[in-house]
Write a structure and sequence with these properties.
single chain, 2 strands, 11 helices, mainly alpha, about 0% strand, two-stranded antiparallel ribbon
Length: about 230
């Protein structure tokens, strides 16, 4: 861990000599690739977290009403900050992305709703760092049932969707369809937002599209166009 993982993002992560050699020392190409890749990672991580936080809070009945009467995640800014710090710390430690996972809904639903439960979980992960060879012996079928139940908890909210309104039904259905197909939560959200904007444009309901929705949708389109 100390010699092969920790801190390698600083000593090896910014070494682009191999890429420059393959591309013929094209600095311009490197800058464009770096910018588009950063955008892609930012969008993927941010919306993975947003979708997971909402799903987990929904499963645990923790959503609160805002001034407009809409459901929202409590202390969203703090939750996003914690996730961002964890992501950066994980990169320094040389691990895969440290972020929120939708499997947390199972723990939330059975009562794990305080900071203490998170501390205990973190302590268990700390122990697991040194027991990873043992953990790798556990087959996927051993925890598949828990993930299926998490899906059952999450699907219950579809009853609140207005299925008679295509402008609500299609953007809601596309994320559910695209997330398992693309194996990516943020891609599912992207298709839902793009469909939402497109349908409202076609049906002359532009005024219903919020500025934030425009910005995020354009960012998703830029990510798809520049990275795919």
């Amino acid at each position: 861990f100390g010699s092969e993982s920790f801190g390698k993002v600083f000593t090896e992560g910014f070494d682009f000599s191999g890429y420059l050699a393959a591309e013929g020392d094209s600095i311009g190409t490197l800058v464009i690739t770096f910018a588009t890749t950063s955008l892609a990672f930012c969008m993927v991580d941010m919306f993975d977290t947003l979708g997971t936080l909402y799903g987990a809070c929904r499963g645990g009945n923790l959503l609160v009403k805002n001034a407009k009467g809409e459901d929202e995640v409590p202390n969203m800014n703090r939750a996003m900050l914690a996730d961002a710090l964890a992501t950066c710390t994980g990169a320094v430690c040389g691990t895969s992305t440290v972020t929120t996972f939708v499997e947390s809904s199972a723990g939330v639903a059975v009562g794990g709703r305080t900071g203490l439960s998170s501390v205990v979980t973190a302590a268990m992960f700390l122990v697991a760092m040194f027991l990873s060879p043992v953990a790798s012996l556990i087959p996927a079928c051993a925890y598949a049932a828990a993930l299926i139940y998490v899906g059952i908890l999450m699907i219950g909210c579809v009853k609140n969707i207005d299925w008679d309104d295509p402008a609500a039904a299609i953007p809601a259905f596309l994320p559910m369809l695209m997330m398992p197909f693309s194996y990516n939560i943020s891609y599912g959200i992207a298709f839902g937002l793009i469909a939402y904007v497109a349908i409202h444009l076609i049906s002359c309901r532009i005024k219903e599209i919020k500025i934030g929705t425009w910005v995020v949708t354009l960012l998703f389109l830029a990510m798809f166009l520049l990275t795919h």
